[in-house]
Amino acid sequence: MKFSKPDIGKLKAAEISMRKQRILIGKAKEECFDSINSDPPKYTSGLWCNRTWDGVACWTDTRASSTATQICPSYIIGFNRFEYASRRCTETGEWFRSPKTNKSWTDYSRCITPVETVLAQNHIHNILGLTNFGYVVSLISLLVAIVIMVFCRRFHYKSNILHINLFLAFSCRSLFSLLRQNLFTYGFAMSIDFQKKGDKIIFKDGPHWECRLLFTLFIYGLCASQVWILVEGFYLQMLIHKTLFTQQRSVKFYIIFGWCFPFTFLIPWIFARIYYDNTLCWSVNMHWSYLWIIRGPITLTIIINFLFFLDNIRVLRDRTRARGNSRTFRKLAKFTVMLVPLFGVPNLLFMMLPPEMNVAVDVPFLYVSMLYSSFQGLILSLLFCFLHEQVHINMKRKISRYVMRRDTERKPIPCVRDYGMESLLLLFILPNKKIGIAVLERKQRRDNCKTLEKETGEIFSLTYFSSDL
């Protein structure tokens, strides 16, 4: 399916296998004969060529001495769907026949894609393998980042709560992308949705709810991740322009919007697929106009985020100029680098991917766009969790606590807080009996065994006697 360029793998017709092409041709043939048998004649007088199936596409009734045209079928490998095919009806009301074969002939010469496009198929498996690896790495890093931020209470402030939801959205995107890529056989359906008879693959009749549910979840993960990038960008925009208002306001609105807004265009897309384009597992588009129900809002969010990015850079640049020191400029440059993936700026560049396939330009572009898309979760988790200074401080604190707790359990420290026989024996076998007796006499006045923990998380040693004795 051709969808979002970096994510659903807009790899043009080269991604469609020969077996998938046969299935789609069979589906188009079936629809064509249904139309031939059920639709009334287009003309009732004069001469015309009857509707027909030429083995590739369906042609309607055409007046004599005229030429019928239609967009090149998108399910044929190497065909350019932005060109058109033609079929001429002669003066006698018969389809034009080729002098060489004496059979009716359709002109598909404009549909044939240059040889360079076929050569691009060699890169498809490499790209898909790299994206598969990228989604695995992103999923693992995102889950680790979520665990760190959820179980560390010091990270439970507003911006980090939004970061956690952003990580969850990209985790869903990575997970559903992996499931789709590995469970969909030939890239368009699950193995339970078709059967093989020799060299032929027959798509079974039925609701196919499993593969359609998985593909719908995949689309939701894609939409949710883009919307959450918009939420993060909007929150930062409000934080820069209305700091006090943003700090006082709860993040519940952002959370509800981030997870619910994708349904506003996902549900209409589902109804459009059910009633108007209920083809296979919905991973193939027979009517490209319905694709914009999803692609339109995503494109709009990318553009809005880019405008947020430009405005934030402008505000920060003006404030930096007011201070006028090199250290502030370095901070601005560092912050700008962090804003680029947060606002999804590269997605705007990937939208400019031209529809025509050119190996010299588009194949490297596909490598970059698909790798960025699959590794975007890793990039976000690095910038907003693993490379964050506060995370390092808190992780050191957790580790130091664990080490001290483990050492304490392995080798108990004599402490007057423990009034058992073991403590008394430990006290009296000290080299200096006077110190031990003095400590024992003071056990009821105060505890000399204290655990000191500062805000930095450093744990100091336990003391069991007073140094002034």
UniProtKB/TrEMBL annotation:
GO terms for biological process, alphabetical: adenylate cyclase-modulating G protein-coupled receptor signaling pathway; cell surface receptor signaling pathway
Molecular-function GO term, any one: calcitonin receptor activity
Transmembrane segments: 133-152, 161-179, 213-231, 251-272, 292-311, 332-353, 365-387
CC per GO annotation: plasma membrane
Keywords: Cell membrane, Disulfide bond, G-protein coupled receptor, Glycoprotein, Membrane, Receptor, Signal, Transducer, Transmembrane, Transmembrane helix
Annotated Pfam families: 7tm_2 (PF00002), HRM (PF02793)
Domain G-protein coupled receptors family 2 profile: 31-115, 127-388
Compartment annotation: Cell membrane
InterPro entries in alphabetical order: GPCR_2, GPCR_2-like_7TM, GPCR_2_calcitonin_rcpt_fam, GPCR_2_extracell_dom_sf, GPCR_2_extracellular_dom, GPCR_2_secretin-like, GPCR_2_secretin-like_CS
Protein family: Belongs to the G-protein coupled receptor 2 family.
Name of protein: Hormone parathyroid hormone-related peptide receptor-like
Organism, scientific name: Octopus vulgaris (Common octopus)
